[in-house]
Amino acid sequence: MLLENMSYVEVEAYLVEKDIILIPIGSVEQHSPYGLLGTDFITAEAIAREVGKRMNILVAPTITYGMSQHHAGFKGTVTLSPLTLVSLVKDIVNSLIQQGFRRIVFINGHGGNINSVKIAFEQLKYENKHGIFEIISWFLLPEIQEMEKDIFEDKNGLHATPSEVSITKFLRSEAFETKPKEKKKVEKPNGYFPLSKEEFKKLYPDGRIESAPWLAKEKYGKLILEEAVRVIMERIKEISKKKIL
Fold it and tell me: What is the reported pTM?
């Protein structure tokens, strides 16, 4: 059910039966020395594709870049501006609306994307575009946060978390052969948001935000990914039942 593998004839046939599509969105940004630069889009893509596979729902190509300006002080981070992301989301949704999609759900792996994506949705509604536009951030699901507490106690943190690193370890174990494993102190500075790239690096010099990514394990990643898929499937069922006005 990957849009990239279909012909336009197959999409036409799909739209006769369904009007929903999932769009994974993440970022390319630092996740401390312990995590992958692609963590946010890798996790979002894997979750979205598994949901699409199990529910026979189309999954669009992944939006790999996001709003990551606060991480730009670390090499390898590639960021869109907030306004660019708003425009990108608007253009993608408008294209899909014109084709007949009416339930467009972004499966998100990066907190920095949320405001821009929601602003895009608001602007689309201001322009009187009909349909259900949703963003589901897997890491904010209450069920996931409860699982993280059970596994990692108070050491999951807010960025470069052992939760997201565990999922990427499960999906791409070979990429972690060169990553560090030693433990460090978990700092909890009294900071604020939003932050510039300079402010962020002063407050979080190795890129972690109150997290202990060395606790990540493949077995945890498998469990967390499965729970995210389960919960999002329930959300998608609810969205699918709603009447389009």
Answer: 0.97
